[in-house]
Each structure stands twice: as C-alpha cells, then as structure tokens.
Amino acid sequence: MSILSRLPFEYFIGLRYTRAGKRSGRRNGFISFISMLSMAGIALGVAALITVLSVMNGFQKEVRDRMLGVLSHIEVLAGRQPLIDWQSVLRQAKVNPRIVDGAPYVSGQAMLTHEDSVKGVIVRGIEPAEEVRVTDFAKSMQAGSLDALEPGRFGVAIGKELANLLLLRVGDRLTLIAPQGTLTPAGVVPRLRQFTIVAIFDSGHYEYDTSLVLMNIQDAAKLFRIEGVSGVRLKTTSMMDAPQIADELTHQLVGDLYVRDWSAENRNWFAAVQIEKRMMFIILALIIAVAAFNLVSMLVMTVTDKQADIAILRTLGASPASVMKIFVVQGALIGLMGTFAGVVLGVLLASNIGQVIAMIEHLFGFQVLPSGVYFINYLPSDLHADDVVVIGLVSCVLAFVSTVYPSWRASRVRPAEALRYE
User: Fold this and answer.
1) Ranges of residues in the chain whose predicted pLDDT is under 70
2) SS3 222
3) Distance in angstroms (rounded) separating the CA atoms of residues 90 and 76
4) ∠ at Cα 167 (161, 173), nearest 5°?
5) Which side of the chain, N or C, has fewer Cβ within a 10 Å radius?
6) H helices of 253-384, where?
7) Half-sphere exposure of 91 (CA within 13 A, CB side)
8) β-pairing, 231-236 with 74-78?
9) What is d(CA 21, CA 33) in angstroms, rounded to the nearest whole number?
10) Which of 147, 143, 138, 157 is nearest to 195 (CA)?
11) What are the distances in angstroms from CA 16 to CA 20, 32, 306, 333?
12) What is the value of pTM for the model shown?
C-alpha cells in the first residue's frame, strides 16, 4: 500500500489536482502553467528577500566591525570633573565577569591648522600600551605605530583621509588650537600647540579617518589643561552584550559617572539601518504577496473547471469542509513548494554572493562596487537563520491565506446546478 493511499481522501485529491494539468486538456494545462508561475514567483520573492537582507546584514556587520576598531565596547565617562583615580573605576568595572579589560583616555575638540587649511577634529589622548587591550588601532596603522606616541614628544596619529585632504605625511608638523583660551591683559588668547605626525591610521570608517586625532594621554592632558582623564574605555566578552553590560555598570559603579555603549554612541546610524531593513522587508514581501495572490486566480479557475468533480464528491457524501480542504491542500502545497525552493535558492545565493557578483562582473565587464568610489569593494553577506525562518513563515502564511476564498467558493458549489449540463 502506497503512502498516498493512506492519506485522507482530501489530501489525496488535492495532490492529484496539483499535478493533473500535466496530462489533461488545454484548459488544465493552462491552469498548471499558472500554478508554476505562482510557485516560481514565490520562490524568486523568497530568494530575493533572503539575499537582500543578508547583504544588508553584511554591510551592517562590516561597518560595525570597523567602528569597533576605533570605538570601545563601553565607555565610562567622568561627570562635571575629570576622573582622577581611573584605576579604581576599572577595578569596580572588573567586578562584572564580562568586562575583559580597560584603558583610560582624554577627549576633547580642537581646530587643526596646516598652512592655509583649517579642520575641526576630535582629539583623543591614549596610553599606547593600554589602548591595544580595548581597540584594534595597532592593526590599522598604515604608517608609523602607536608606540611612537611617547609622552612629551607631542606626536600625533591622524587618519588616512585627513592626511589626503590636507596633503600630510609622517614627519609633517601641524598646529592644534584648544577651545579653552588663556586669559591675558589683552584678552583671551587661544592656546596653540604644534605637533608632529608620527603615524597615519586607516580605520576603514570615513568619519573617524577624517576627524580623529590620536596623541599620548599626557600630551592631551597638557593641551586641554586637565588633571586626570576624561574616562575609561572597556572591552567586554561580547560586543553584542555591551548594551546589557552597560546597563548593569550604571547601577554598579559608584560616583558621578556616565556609562554608554558603542551602539548608543552611534544610535542614529543603527536606527536608520534598522528602518531601512524593515522597509526593505515590507517592499520585497510584496513580491511574495503578488505571487501568492496568483494562487487565487489559479484556484478560482480550478474550481470552475472541477465543478462536476465537486458535485460528484458531494453526492458521494463529502462535506463542504472536505471540499474546501481539497483546494486548501492544493494551494498550500504550491505555496510550500515555492517557499522551499526560494529558501534553498536564497541561502545558496546569500552564501555565495561574492562569487556570483564576481562572475557577473567578469561576464559584463563592470565593477559593482569600484574601489575608487566605495570603501568596501565587495558585497558582504551575513546570513541569519532567524531571517530565513521569518521569511519562510510569512511566505507560507500568505500562500495559505490566498487559498481561503477559492476553497470557500468550492465548498459552496451546489451539486444539482453543477451536474445540470453534464
């Protein structure tokens, strides 16, 4: 006995209707063609949605990783007054087992001048030996090294884009103007200090490569005339847990301190990315919806064509619910097959998007992301299992909903009227 024969008759007939057009008349063949189009549309919509969301996740991960080469997972900032005993704050933070290490820093804004050029920058004073414990700056040095930021030497490290903008290189001198001036009988005189470029870094993030200047923490304290440090940068066991850990530290640390994580520092950017992902999901889900609603027309045509069959089933004792179930099975099966094919295609495409784009570039002779224009010259992909599950469920639900009305109409067929002209 075959497996099909063990199924309830509604499933058996629904499965037969799904493949009946392959060996029936012209009308059934057209219905089968519409069914294949609906299945292909659902598959393409699902595959497109999985691929696009994976690429967006890849770009978000790429930018986030580059940000974290510059930013720390968590920052503990001093309140109104500089932080004198930063070691005590670090010891308090390390009570939390998910805090790996920390490093002090001094931060402030300044004007950078070189010849006739002026640029507003963010100055960050660091301790090179401590900084490598919380960020990956040492790996992003294009020229020179962090170790060259020695106290009293007044050396600075600037980003590659800032160096290109002002035509600077290692060994050149520039001037930093601190916002806190010096009061003299002639009025407030801006505080100036000349610095020598000892390193150039390439973080891969344009905002920081054009506006961030690194120097030794002692030199920064002298420039801004502060006693102590601005705060402590912390590294956690997992950057994704940083917001939760930051919330724990807010209640754990004692003193006038402010705790923020890397996502809070770039909240607007991450919020914009999430909105884009949601809108892209809705837009591409409409493709799946259109393909799923093609099932309505296909099932309506099938119901019209099979009215005699429905009438015979009703006279043999089939209930309206059983008739409705037959066409629900037929439409749902097409939706499930299309969803499955789309998930397989989407996962394969998202997992091999780099090779696919390279093949397209080779065939058509153009570059999708030219390295001279974009900072990322390839399409990153980060496939999330939860995205695949949600997309698959949405596709199946849309396909199932599309079968309800035609199946209901089939259950309302009256046997006497259907068989009158047979």
Assistant:
1) 1-32, 181-189, 305-307, 309-310, 312-318, 367-377, 411-422
2) helix
3) 9
4) 105
5) N
6) 262-265, 267-305, 307-315, 320-351, 353-364
7) 4
8) antiparallel
9) 8
10) 157
11) 6, 12, 12, 11
12) 0.71
What does the pLDDT look like over 237-260, one tens digit per residue?
888 888 888 888 888 887 778 888
Burial of residue 155 (CB within 10 Å: 0-12, 13-18, 19+) is: buried
From residue 393, how far is each of 294, 339, 340, 381 by CA, in Å? 18, 9, 11, 22
Three-class SS state of 229: strand
Residue of 213, 197, 192, 50 whose CA lies nearest to 122: 213
Give the CA-trace dihedral at 355, 359, 365, 369, to 10 degrees. -20
Residues 6+ away with beta carbon under 8 Å from 195: 154, 155, 156, 173, 174, 175, 176, 215, 219
Check residue 344 and give its pLDDT.
92
**Cβ atoms 341, 32 nearer than 8 A:** no
- Rounded Cα distance between 170 and 198, Å, is 5
Per-residue pLDDT tens digits for 124-168: 988 888 888 888 777 778 888 888 888 888 889 998 888 888 888
Q: What is the identity of the amino acid at 277?
A: K
pLDDT at 416: 59
CA dist 396 and 25 (Å) reads 30
pLDDT of residue 128: 86
Nearest to 72 by CA among 102, 92, 108: 102
What six digits make up the tokens of 164? Answer: 């290109």
CA distance 364 to 206: 30
- Neighbouring residues of 313: CB distance < 8 A, sequence distance ≥ 6: 13, 322, 323, 326
The whole-angstrom separation of Cα 270 and Cα 331 is 40
Q: Which tens digit of pLDDT belongs to each residue from 322-354?
A: 777 777 777 788 888 888 999 999 999 888 887
